[in-house]
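Rotation project, supervised by the postdoc (A.L.). Task for the rotation student: set up a whole-complex structure prediction and record inputs and outputs verbatim in this book. Inputs entered:
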Amino acid sequence: MTTCIACGMPMAKPEEHAMGDVSKNYCVHCARPDGSMQSYTEKLKSLTGFIMKTQAFDEKVARKSAKEMMAKLPAWKQ
Amino acid sequence: MRQGVRIGQKQHTRTVLVRAALVRFARDGLAEAKTSDIAAAAKVSHGTVFVHFSSRESLLSAAIEEFGAKITKRLHELVEGGSSVGAVLRAHLEGLAQFEPFYTRLVTQATVIPVAARSTMVMIQSAISFHLSQAAEHEMAAGSIRRMPLSLLFNTWLGLVHYYVANKDVFSPRSSVLKRLGPELVRHYMTLISA
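Outputs recorded:
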């Protein structure tokens, strides 16, 4: 099973890949409507919002956590 | 070719060390497990640990990250697309039960977790909150569960699970608390949130 390079989500099925295209190494949640991968800024914003919405983290803590999580992922590693 | 073999052996030793660390940290504690015991369990010299990891804390971070990758993958395998809230909760407990001793340490010794590895804990909780939120939004719209903030829905569940995990010694001293009492926790929680 591959994992999304941009958010780390496992991708077990074709429909979990962007546009259902298994040659894409990022998931459906990290793709823009046109199928291209979201930018670092877009992903940081959506991940921060997700952590706040589902776990009620303080905004600054959520953003810091999102940054730390993203720093470990292939798409965003320095 | 020889260099490739060396890299492969190095990666293999690192993997063996991380696996041994997962077992020893779970058994002895995040603060208590000794690198010398981990080395012995991995059948390498004590010094080899520090060829691969700059410090004990770095080895603990690697173990937590390995656990995070395993549990996230397992949760994803267990939760089918379109699962109900109840099915997500059961999958959550089934996934955690497979790694219960290590997860218990993470819950009860949270202050010992290296700062570098704390985001792994957020990643694990985000994986389950993602699946739970998807199922819950669908069921709230259908009217089968009550409307409430997704964060409270998730945090209430996690609070319940962590209370039982952290106090396993009184609830289930001889066996997995999640396997023994998990079905009852899911039934109770579903009763609380049902419309």
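Student's summary: Chain B has ten helices and no strands.
Supervisor addendum: The two ends of chain B are 64 Å apart (CA to CA).
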